[in-house]
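User: Okay, second chain of the day. Same drill as before: sequence in, C-alpha cells out.
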Amino acid sequence: MGQNILLLILLALGILGRNNTVALAACLLLALRLLKLDKLFPLIEKHGLELGVIVLTIGVLAPLASGAISLETIWQTVRSSSGLLGIAVGVLVAYLGGRGVHLLSDLPQAATGIIIGTVMGVALLRGVPVGPLIGAGILALLLQHK
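Assistant: Same drill. C-alpha cells below.
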C-alpha cells in the first residue's frame, strides 16, 4: 500500500512538474503493482539500468548511423576548442557513469539517496533521469569507492 502511495505521489509530481518521463514511469510501475505483476520488479531492477543505457546509447549513435553527423562534422569537432572540451567531458561522464554502476550495486543506502535526489530533480526541475549514474560516479569519487 505504501508503495502505491509513493508511486501516486511521483505520478503527481511528474504531472505537476510537466515531466512526462517521471509520470509515465510512475504510471507503468503503478500499473504493474495493480495488475499483481510484482514478480517483474526484480527483473526490472536487475536489467532496467542496462536496458536504459542501451536505449540511450542507441539515441546517441543514431545521428552517426543516419548520416546526420558526417566525418566532416567529426573532423570539425576535433579541430575546435569547444569540440575538444566536449570530448573531454564525454570521457569524464562515461568514466563517472562506470564508477556509478559499481556504487549503485555495492551501497544500497547511497543508491536510495541518489534515486530520491534524481526523482526530485526530474520532477521538480525538469531534469532528465540520467543523473543516478553520474551522481553515483561523483559520490564514488568522493567516497573513494573502487
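The chain has a mean pLDDT of 85.

User: Thanks, on to the next one.
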